[in-house]
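Troubleshooting: if your tokenizer reports a length mismatch, compare your output against this known-good record of 266 residues.
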Amino acid sequence: MSRVLDKYNQMDETKLWKEYRATKNRELKDYFAQKYSPLVKHVAGRVAIGMPQNVEFDDLVSYGVFGLLDAIEKFDPAREIKFKTYAMTRIRGSIFDELRSVDWIPRSIRQKAKQLEQIIGMLENKEGQTVEDDAIAKELGLTGEEYSSLLTQVRGTSLVSLNDIWFLGDENDEVSFMETLESPANLNPDVIIEKEEIKNVIVEAIKTLPEKEKKVIVLYYYEDLTLKEIGEVLEVTESRISQLHTKAVMRLRSKLSKVKSVVSKK
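Known-good structure output:
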């Protein structure tokens, strides 16, 4: 395989992508797969940091490989996007898709997460503004310490659910918060417009988050920092960042669920 790397490494990569798009040359595909394989471990490593211990790193890597191969097949060099950026989004999506399909989150934890999301939505609808931790804990009948423990328990659900924040049951209807790089070439104009509208709704929902939660979302999903690194930036513990992330996702899902139900009925 090093022979393949040596053969193509000195060539212009844009030209290689154009050639692959035109010919689907197997050797070129192998070259791209080997050259960008470190991305899979990079993304899997960052995802693994927020996962429970029963989720194996090697499994995340194997899930991510499918995303890399998918990215190689679908990448369009005519668009002004670096392949590395496009591939990382595909790899992350592939990992979360597989985690969702194997249903690794215990039902009891999933139920607690759903209850938390509903309570936050109910309170924020009632108050017409973002609600604080003590109000959420009170509604749940929990002490502050018990509420913090609940956020820790459900953190795994939030890491997967934000990637899957807008899923209406069909691949063409899926718009994740991270989907800013999808090629619209295979979509009709109506679908393109609808996806853009949905992404605008998601962005507006993010703007309504409390400032610290908003920073966590931006740094984790757009700046690709780990929860630990975000903690260093904001000068708080990693566990506190995990809690902020979980609350942000619950707020987003609650806000978007109402809009999503309207869109799904169209």
